[in-house]
Design goal:
The chain is mainly alpha-helical. Helix content is 45%, strand content 4%. Bound molecules: iron/sulfur cluster (2 copies). One iron/sulfur cluster is lined by residues 36, 40, 106, 108-109, 114, 116, 120, 124.
Length: 229
């Protein structure tokens, strides 16, 4: 699949997810930014999508915010969702990464709003909570929503299986370079060695047995995307 087709697929995947979220009872609203942290992760496909938007809509100065964040600590994943699924199914050990999250806001956040809201990555879209996280200090997420989130993470990584994943800051730093964007477009991306990890195709879906029936319509909607394009 060429890059334009992948971007069109990504756009449709976001649409399916946004429709799913629109039917949830959640507390998330404008100016609530507790989940806009420096620990957000994404794929290179999403990074390319964001970088092109930033350049096309006069928001290139946001790359300076990214540059200033490079020396700061942040969550840098060591394993992608599809690799984790693969390790689980093969009964292999995997590294627990929960303790690597650190305090700090997303460097793109401005006046408690996201300047790239329309093209924010899935890692931002999937932060939802039944109650306002600021009241309790943590999010409350339905277990079915977590299964749906995992499914979307797996599908987006699959679409970008020739690309990489990493912290939003590292991916955007990488995509700020015209040469890197060109190499990505041409499918000539070698290991960038900048805190990014290679993506993997889906080998097995991580859907718990109790959610397999309920998730079917979403799975069908995702499967229709490629057929309709
Ligand atoms: S997940 Fe929590 S912090 Fe983020 S918008 Fe929703 S309620 Fe606010
Ligand atoms: S990209 Fe936007 S939505 Fe995502 S964490 Fe940053 S400011 Fe928040």
């Amino acid at each position: 699949m060429d890059l334009n087709s992948k971007l069109a697929v990504l756009d449709q995947i976001y649409r399916v997810y946004d429709e799913f979220v629109a039917n949830l009872h959640i507390a998330c609203k404008k100016y609530c930014t507790g989940c806009c942290t420096c620990n957000v992760t994404m794929t290179t496909l999403e990074g390319y999508f964001m970088a092109k938007h930033m350049i096309s809509y006069g928001k290139s100065s946001l790359f300076e915010n990214i540059e200033r964040s490079i020396p700061k600590r942040r969550f840098q994943p060591q394993t992608t969702t599809n690799r984790l699924a693969d390790l689980c199914i093969r009964g292999k050990d995997f590294m627990k990464e929960e303790n690597d999250y650190v305090n700090g806001s997303c460097p793109l956040l401005k006046d408690r709003l996201c300047p790239v809201y329309q093209v924010r990555p899935f890692g931002c879209r999937c932060f939802v909570s039944k109650h306002d996280c600021r009241d309790k200090g943590y999010a409350e997420v339905d277990s079915f929503v977590l299964s749906v989130n995992n499914l979307f993470l797996q599908v987006i990584e699959h679409v970008d299986s020739q690309g990489f994943s990493g912290n939003l800051i590292d991916v955007l730093k990488f995509m700020a370079s015209k040469k890197n964007r060109h190499n990505y477009k041409m499918n000539r991306l070698e290991n960038p060695d900048t805190g990014l990890i290679p993506n993997l195709k889906i080998k097995v879906l991580m859907i718990p047995p109790e959610h397999r029936v309920k998730i079917k319509p979403i799975l069908n909607a995702l499967q229709r995307i490629k057929r309709d394009l």
